[in-house]
Every structure is written in C-alpha cells, then in structure tokens.
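HUMAN:
Sorry, I am quite new to this. Are you able to go through these amino acid letters and fold codes? The numbers rather puzzle me.
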Amino acid sequence: MGIMKNVLVCTGLVMMLLLGGCSGHPPSSIGLHDGNFSPCPDSPNCVSSMSDREKTYILPLDIQGDRKEVMSALKSILDEYGGVEILVERDDYIHAGFRSRIFGFVDDVEFYFPEGSLHIHVRSASRLGYWDAGANRKRIEKIRALLKKQDLTDQT
C-alpha cells in the first residue's frame, strides 16, 4: 500500500510540474485589432463583450465616473486578486495574465476603455485546453461585482 501511495504522489507531482510549465505564451492575436478584440475560438473557454455568438458573449462593464478612476480601481482589484500579472498597460487598454493556483495555467484577460464610452470591453480566454468549467465567465463577473462594490459600475 505504501509503494502505491508513493507512486501516486510522485506521478501527481510530475504532472503538476509538466502542466505548470505549460502555461504558454500569449497568443499573437491578443490585443486590439482595429478597435476590436480577436474573436473567441470555437472552444468553450473564452468570453468577450465583443463576441457575436451567444455562448461566448458577456456584457461589457458599464462604468460610472471618471475613466481613469475606474482604470485605477481595476488595477487595484487585479493587484489584490492574486496570481495576476499586468502584461500590457496603456491609457485605454490592460492585458493581464491570470495564473491558476494548482496547475499554473494562464488565462489572458483584456480590458478596453474606448474613449468617450461608458463601458469597458472585456475578453477572457484560456491559453491552453478546451474547456474551462466557466472560469473565464466567473472571473469577469467577479471583477464586475468588485467594481460594483466601489460604486464604479451601474450593473448589478
């Protein structure tokens, strides 16, 4: 029994190391292309407020107040979220990598603050794998709720 347990533990550790090292690099499609995010792939591991498909569509973050104030609050939320690295930051755009705690997979999350707009467009997608168990949608909804707590969005 002890040998079998050791084999399972060792196998689990090797799997975690291998999978943790498989976080990949950001896809070349990340970023804005003529003011739009890249479309979500056909796999169920992406959501976007710019999607034209029901399964991958998510509402943008409707904001109230100053755009720079909201962006600053969003960066604070990302700092406190844990496992997040801001990879690109511009006046109207943030690209962050969210690393999962167990396997170290990275999801790319983008926030676009169009000039003169009262919303933030969002896109959250897994770099690797096919299905995400709804993690990308849940992440955006959690961020929406955290902004709402600060009275920076008018959505429930």
